[in-house]
Write a structure and sequence with these properties.
Helix content is about 30%, strand content about 25%. The protein is of the alpha/beta class.
Length: about 180
């Protein structure tokens, strides 16, 4: 876990996903001078476009940008929760780092339009802010064989019983708050 000075602990922390950078974050309505922006280190290699690099440059200029790598404990917690929710097959390595980094900064708010990131954050009690789409229900995913209807908690290529393909389904759960 990353330790922060008392001054930094009193400020709001935002964990920035690549979707936020693509939407030309920061947004003055969300982030002000009393906040810090945290980007998982792994996102540096994902940022390719000139525009996205320019957004990072602007974010760096105000000296509130922190690059961080999540702890192994937080990464393991995120991966286990993603397996339970069925989101594991929809998450990239960068997505898991975004959510795990949020766990390392208690009280942080994740900024992402990614559905799987939002769903996982809801399971872990992490606050989320979006630009265009916010999920309304928490989902628990499972896979069902189109042939024999066997259900599986994790994604596999074909049904071990009959060899048919699997289709993804979900059960909805209300998001509290």
């Amino acid at each position: 876990m990353i330790s922060m000075s008392k001054d930094k602990q009193d400020k709001r922390t935002y964990i920035i996903d690549s979707t936020a950078i693509m939407h030309f974050f920061p947004n003055d309505k969300i982030v002000d001078e009393d906040s810090y922006l945290v980007i998982p280190d792994i996102l540096r290699s994902e940022i390719k476009s000139f525009q996205a690099k320019a957004v990072l440059e602007v974010m760096s200029a105000d000296q509130r940008l922190i690059y961080a790598s999540p702890s192994d404990h937080s990464l393991n917690t995120v991966k286990e929760t993603a397996k339970s929710s069925g989101d594991i097959s929809s998450l990239s390595e960068a997505d898991t780092h975004v959510v795990a980094t949020a766990l390392d900064f208690p009280g942080a708010l994740v900024i992402s339009d990614d559905n799987a990131v939002q769903n996982l954050c809801s399971f872990l009690g992490i606050q989320i802010e979006t630009f265009s789409f916010k999920i309304k229900t928490r989902r628990v995913y499972f896979w069902k064989c189109i042939g024999c209807s066997n259900k599986f908690k994790e994604k596999i290529a074909v049904c071990p019983e009959c060899g048919n393909k699997l289709k993804r389904f979900y059960r909805k759960k209300k998001i509290k708050g």
